[in-house]
TrEMBL record:
It catalyses: a 1,2-diacyl-sn-glycero-3-phospho-L-serine(in) = a 1,2-diacyl-sn-glycero-3-phospho-L-serine(out). The chain crosses the membrane at residues 7-25, 45-68, 161-181, 201-221, 228-247, 259-277, 289-309, 315-337. GO terms for cellular component: plasma membrane. It is found in: Cell membrane; Membrane. The keyword Magnesium does not apply. It is a multi-pass membrane protein. Belongs to the XK family. Keywords: Apoptosis, Cell membrane, Membrane, Transmembrane, Transmembrane helix. One of its GO terms (molecular function) is phospholipid scramblase activity. Pfam families: XK-related. GO terms for biological process: apoptotic process involved in development; engulfment of apoptotic cell; establishment of localization in cell; neutrophil clearance; phosphatidylserine exposure on apoptotic cell surface; positive regulation of myoblast differentiation; tolerance induction to self antigen. This is XK-related protein. It comes from Camelus dromedarius.
């Protein structure tokens, strides 16, 4: 194996370990916060934290189990029997099992002097599913948890040490998941430039800077109107769900599970942009940005005209201007990315990239992760030479 390829494989393995550790640390921080709420007698807050954890975990296990069942027989030869896999998912350990399996396959490939093309492609297949599940976990659990913690801090006017830990781990985990998912998408199309170090920094920053004002706005609304925030979320979520349905998504293997995917995407769209359909994305992304910005401005007007102010007035005077600056800076970085760094632009990719990104799809056999490849085509509609797999309409994971 060439030395550069081995180094890139090692870098991807390190990123996989860091992603798994970030998930465990964020989970531990949330459980720690819930235990502190119980010890201090704030049972409602503890119940909300555990409820968000439980709902997100159930959805994550459902996605993982449905995908495993839809993959062709014989693809995952090293997996335990079906009953053991079902038990793992029932115990809410399916996602962690996938992470361990992906790390084992990556380590196997890295240790081989001349890994087979099948081993390389299979490691790629596993890593793509893990990236998608990590993104879903981020917006189903981490982002709502962050909003809840910020609302509690704003209501009280101060933050405990465990709350600061939860806030910091959540922000890093959210941005990391978005970056990892976007990087995974780029590995699906042979003509798409790989995500390099400089591009990764820009993409990480604009997602973080645009997400922070949205989370703060929702947290402030939750702190002022805790009884109405659920109605607000459900109202917007239904509108976004209808929008996703109109775009005719076809991601899951059956119609029932497709609605689970649409409901999850609607939750993601409540906080951030997520493309699910083919065709030019600029118009839809602009509509979504204007929609969220209008909703956020309406909530800001609601705070200003409300007679009862939060006890953290001095903190709020710093947070609101800071959120506005973050939004403008994030918007500027997003324009920089789409004008000069997006795959539709003519630019040379930088060299720092994962080992999976060093191989063209023409140089490796299947298994091919059809789920992520189709999403990659949606995100990068201008990418040429799409995989023959999608042109032929073959099933996911066909050998």
């Amino acid at each position: 194996m060439p030395l550069s390829t081995r180094a890139a494989l090692f870098w991807d393995l390190v990123l996989g370990v860091l992603g798994t550790l970030a998930f465990l640390i964020d989970l531990g921080a949330d459980l720690w916060a819930a235990s502190q709420y119980v010890l201090s007698g704030r049972y409602l807050w503890a119940a909300l934290v555990l409820a968000l954890l439980g709902l997100a975990s159930v959805a994550l296990q459902l996605f993982s189990w449905i995908w495993l069942r839809s993959d062709p027989h014989g693809l995952h030869t090293s997996q335990p029997p079906g009953q053991c896999l079902a038990l793992l998912h029932l115990l809410q350990l399916g996602y962690l099992y996938r992470c361990v399996q992906g790390l084992q396959q990556g380590l196997l490939v890295w240790r081989q002097e001349a890994p087979s093309q099948f081993d390389l492609a299979y490691a790629d297949f596993l890593s793509l599913d893990i990236s998608m599940l990590r993104l879903f976990e981020t917006f189903l659990e981490t982002t709502p948890q962050l909003t809840l913690v910020l609302a509690i801090v704003l209501q009280r006017g101060s933050a405990e040490y465990y709350q600061w830990v939860s806030i910091c781990t959540s922000f890093v985990g959210i941005s990391w998941a978005l970056l990892d998912y976007h990087r995974a998408l780029r590995t699906c199309l042979p003509s798409t430039p790989r995500l390099g170090l400089g591009t990764s920094v820009i993409y990480f920053l604009w997602n973080l800077l645009l997400l922070w004002p949205r989370v703060l706005v929702v947290a402030l609304f939750s702190a002022l109107f805790p009884r109405y925030v659920v109605l607000h979320f459900l109202g917007l979520w239904l509108v976004l769900l209808f929008w996703v349905w109109l775009q005719g998504t076809d991601f899951m293997p059956d119609p029932c599970s497709e609605w689970l995917y649409r409901a999850t995407v609607a939750t993601v769209l409540y906080f951030s942009w997520f493309n699910v359909a083919e065709g030019p994305t600029r118009g839809r992304a602009t509509i979504h940005l204007v929609f969220l910005l209008s909703d956020s401005l309406l909530m800001v007007v609601t705070w200003v005209t409300h007679v009862t102010w939060l006890p953290s007035g001095s903190l709020l005077q710093m947070l609101l201007p800071g959120a506005g600056v973050c939004f403008l800076l994030g918007l500027a970085l997003r324009l920089v990315y789409y004008c000069w760094l997006h795959p539709s632009c003519h630019w040379e990719p930088d060299r720092v990239d994962g080992a999976w990104g060093l191989r063209s799809l023409e140089e490796r056999p299947l298994p091919q992760n059809r789920r992520m490849a189709r999403l990659a085509q949606n995100f990068f509609p201008k990418a040429k030479d799409a995989p023959a797999l999608l042109r032929k309409g073959e099933v996911n994971g066909v050998l």
